[in-house]
Design goal:
By secondary structure, the protein is an alpha+beta fold. The protein has one domain: Winged helix-like DNA-binding domain superfamily/Winged helix DNA-binding domain (Arc Repressor Mutant, subunit A), CATH 1.10.10. It has helices at residues 2-10, 16-32, 41-48, 52-64, 91-106; strands at residues 68-74, 81-87. The longest helix is centred in the N-terminal third of the chain and has 17 residues, at 16-32. The protein starts with a helix and ends with a helix.
């Protein structure tokens, strides 16, 4: 029940399917952000089998509700820019992370 309440507060007005996609994307970013390789839309698209535009659509919603932040970095070739994704530390994101950790610990 705690998770349902947190999701309703963190991702208001979304359909169940969109909310599921956003929570999955948030969780994936949370888990990957400590890797050596930066978390980017391209990396997430490759991992999930989704197109970059589909990932970007859900990502925009997470940025709008201040759960995710983007930071400009050099791309792999070093000639252009990409955006590194990470969790934005806000009260909402902290509650969502706590719910994820609690769910993981319950297993």
């Amino acid at each position: 029940m705690l998770v349902e309440r947190i999701l309703a507060e963190a991702l208001p007005g979304e359909t169940g399917a969109a909310r599921l996609q956003q929570v999955g994307l948030f969780t994936l970013i949370f888990m990957l952000q400590s890797d050596d390789e930066p978390v980017t839309v391209s990396r997430l698209a490759a991992m999930t089998g989704q197109s970059a535009s589909e990932v970007s659509l859900q990502l925009k919603k997470l940025i709008k509700v201040e759960l995710i932040q983007r930071s400009k970095i050099l791309n792999r070739q070093g000639r252009g820019y990409a955006y590194k994704l990470s969790i934005k530390h806000t009260p909402r994101s902290k509650r969502l992370i706590a719910a994820i950790r609690k769910g993981a610990a319950a297993k």
